[in-house]
Automatic annotation (TrEMBL):
PANTHER family xrefs: S-ADENOSYL-L-METHIONINE:CARBOXYL METHYLTRANSFERASE FAMILY PROTEIN
MF terms in GO: metal ion binding; methyltransferase activity
Source species of the chain: Theobroma cacao (Cacao)
Protein name per Swiss-Prot or TrEMBL: Probable S-adenosylmethionine-dependent methyltransferase At5g37990
GN (gene name): LOC18601960
Domain of life: Eukaryota
């Protein structure tokens, strides 16, 4: 069977009960917490005059990668544009109208761009366009971007490693759907796939960003020196795995279907991420720091119903693609019951065994 791929499985569109629109408040808080860091980055690190002088159209271009259906992406893009405007005004000798802006919103071809466009402000002072495609590859012309933003997207792999489905491979992940409690070869395969995807991502952005251009990333990471089995992500995937195995025992899904399913996502450690950026060598790391969740976010994370709706908005597409639409309601119902019975998962939440990381990169001179 083919390895699971994210190419045809975006976040759940529309604005219904389980849509990403209604269930992305966790991500929104992280985006909003990063706004001040981005403002500081633009004020201190963006050499705007140099960049604009090399652009014949005097258009400043922002790209948001992994925009999904829009609410959080629009907030981030609007903040970037307002910060650049303030920087431009600070030069004094320029007319504000001299500088135009365009925002390019990227996600998978099957993303619900119609819902995204509904969130664009009617009074926006920038040109906007949707750009379909996988961000692990090239999306834009060379040296056409000035600022790239991406939040809560880079942990998605282009596909799961093929060796996870090879019965003759030591990385064959029978009966498991993730790498957290699997053989070390499984974790190594996931790590290698993330490294490959990250190199492709950085190489593509190095082509597309102008010299001195900035890239702001928000990622969910596993703390350095914490085993994957102790992470919050491990806790919830263990419960999803248990629900699928129960359904396989009852004949509601086939065992082969479970054996051939592996979630195509990977959370690097900060040290791992830093190493990959340095290997690429096209960017300097200007800032790398943790974003801390608020009490409100931690309270939401302790509400089982909120957690399940959030996970359904993210996972439903890829689960439906592999197992079929007919099991989705039953699967998430079982996941909710397991979550309600799981004190170990609650304990992991209290210890915050995942971190949100803000990373600011600057394109080196080519």
């Amino acid at each position: 069977m083919d390895s699971a791929s994210t190419e045809s499985c975006p976040m759940k569109g529309g604005d219904g009960l389980y849509s990403y629109t209604q269930n992305s408040l966790f991500q929104r808080e992280g985006v909003e917490n990063a706004l001040l860091l981005i403002n500081e980055a633009i004020a201190e690190k963006l050499h705007l005059e140099q960049i604009i002088s090399s652009s014949p159209s005097k258009a400043f271009t922002v790209a948001d990668l992994g925009c999904s259906v829009g609410p959080n992406s629009v907030i981030a893009v609007q903040n970037i544009i307002e910060s650049v405007k303030l920087k431009y005004q600070s030069y004094g000798s320029h007319n504000q109208n001299d500088l135009e802006f365009q925002a390019l919103f990227n996600d998978l071809v099957s993303n619900d761009f119609n819902t995204l466009f509904k969130f664009l402000p009617s009074d926006r002072q920038y040109f906007a366009a949707g750009v379909p495609g996988c961000f692990q590859g090239r999306l834009f012309p060379k040296s056409s971007l000035h600022f790239v933003h991406s939040s809560y997207a880079l942990h998605w792999l282009l596909s799961t490693p093929k060796e996870l489905m090879d019965k003759n491979s030591p990385a064959f992940n029978k009966g498991r759907i993730y790498y957290n409690n699997s053989a070390k070869e499984v974790g190594e395969a996931y790590s290698a796939q993330f490294a490959k995807d990250m190199e492709s991502f950085l190489a593509a952005r190095a082509e597309e960003l102008v010299d001195g251009g900035l890239m702001a990333l928000v990622l969910v990471c596993l703390p350095d020196d914490v085993p994957p089995s102790q992470s919050t992500a491990s806790g919830i995937t263990d419960l999803l795995e248990a629900a699928l195995l129960d359904m396989a025992k009852e004949g509601l899904v086939s065992e082969d279907k479970v054996d051939s399913f592996n979630l195509p996502r990977y959370n690097p450690t900060p040290r791992e991420l830093e190493g990959l950026i340095k290997i690429n060598a096209c960017f300097s790391i200007e800032r790398m720091e943790r974003i801390f969740p608020s009490k409100t976010k931690l309270a939401m994370a302790s509400d089982n119903g909120v957690v399940i709706s959030h996970l359904r908005a993210i996972w439903e597409g890829i689960l439906k693609e592999h197992f079929g639409a007919e099991i989705i309601d039953e699967l998430f119902g079982r996941l909710l019951r397991k979550l309600e019975e799981s004190s170990p998962f609650t304990q992991r939440l209290k210890h915050e065994h995942m971190i949100e990381l803000f990373v600011l990169l600057k394109r080196n001179m080519s």
